[in-house]
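[step 3/7] fold_predict: job queued, chain A
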Amino acid sequence: ISLMASPDAHAHAEKRLKLDYAEVQTQQSNYQPPSHPHARLESTGRGHLTLDNAGPVQMGFWVPNRVWATAKFLIPLRRHIEAKRRASPLAPLTPAVAEFKHWILTHSVYRMWLNSVIEQANAYTRSLGGSQREAIKEDGDWCWIPGFDHFFEILNEIVTTSPSFNNTAQVGTPLNGFLAVSMATEAGLALFHDTLFNEQFKKVLDSWNAFLKSPASLDKLDIANPEKPGSWISAAAWAAGVWTQMVHDTSQPGYGYASWNDFFIREFVPGARPFKGNSGTVINIGCETTPWRYASGLSLESEFWAKDMNYSLLDIFGGRREWAERFVHGQLYQGFLSATHYHRWRAPIDGTIVCSWVEPGTYFAQRPGQAEGSGTWEGTESQPYLGHVAARAVFVFHSDFTGYLALVCIGMVEVSTCHIEPKYLVAAGSPGVTVQRGDEIGWFEFGGSTHMMIFDPTKKIQLVDWARGAAQHQQDVSPQAMGSIIANVLS
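[step 4/7] structure written:
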């Protein structure tokens, strides 16, 4: 389109470009996962990974593998931005992204790190084999991110729109797709673990969160055009279970929701998730959960960053020794949520919240030294690690029959906000707050996430089979329903 085109032509071009990009995003839904047993392997030698056998996800979770994210997400996004640039000058960076870029430019160490991230990410793509390189090449170049300015243009594009629906497990996490390579580089490991950098990056995430709480974010819940690209109310979204047993009104704009985030934390219809069993003898799971890991004989401190990723209670509780020590030698269950799951938390027992807080942390960090061996997935296997370093909400409950019980709700990548219902925010030394099982105590805002339940070692508590055998249930098609029994208290 000529730069001399009329305003109407520019408006039409802008609309067409947005549709083109949304169509690219929904093309992810055509992916058919491989059936052979080695479909999810990635090795440091790269020899096991191709686009044919890799797919978008790691171990059934929603962290995209790096080749897939390059070919299916970032390259189309780059093309979309370049087409907009040819049609007319790109829109200015949002104030938050512009401030973030200025901060990087005026702090030489961080400018060095970010440029190193870009260089190392591009070096990774150049190291790939022939078929992978062919799939992701762009004008004879295999650059993941063309340069420093392009990094912020891509970031700006992502945080000025709402996530699109697709039926892959990466649904709803576009920033994670953008940073899938970058966060795995040596420079990325340093940068995304840095406290000062995370404080600045959080301002961008917060500004995006504010957009996603505005009516402008409802473009993909458009009842006048339910089959538009990326629509969350399309036939495909319905078939994927996005609305199963969820509150909605098909006659109202946005299905009755005021914003994309309002939709994201949508409620179940009354009665959809009853809390099962006798509240005096069982412990329920307080959120939807796909099992991931079980551990027993917990240690106060361990090298949680090491390859075997032992849990370290002192780090999980943010250095609060008075709570960590209560669970030494106890049991731990960890599960996860995808972006399409229910994202609210409810009390798992009748009892008292004796302490609760939000622990700040990282957003796009993964375990250092990951992918040392064949078959190691970078992002997904960081789940236990992230319980020690990522932003998280921590609840400590108490009842006579369960003793102490901890629920740790951990934000991952885009999930920068862990919200505790104010009346259940209990500072250290304050009187406890009584809860009944099923009371809503908080929620995640935006994205997938992981969570832990930690059990009192002084009580005889027997976890159910799916929780003790969590590792064998990582590929379960459907999550365990909130309100399911996770443990029986035997004495």
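[step 5/7] annotate
The chain is about 30% helix and 15% strand.
The longest strand covers residues 351-359.
exit 0
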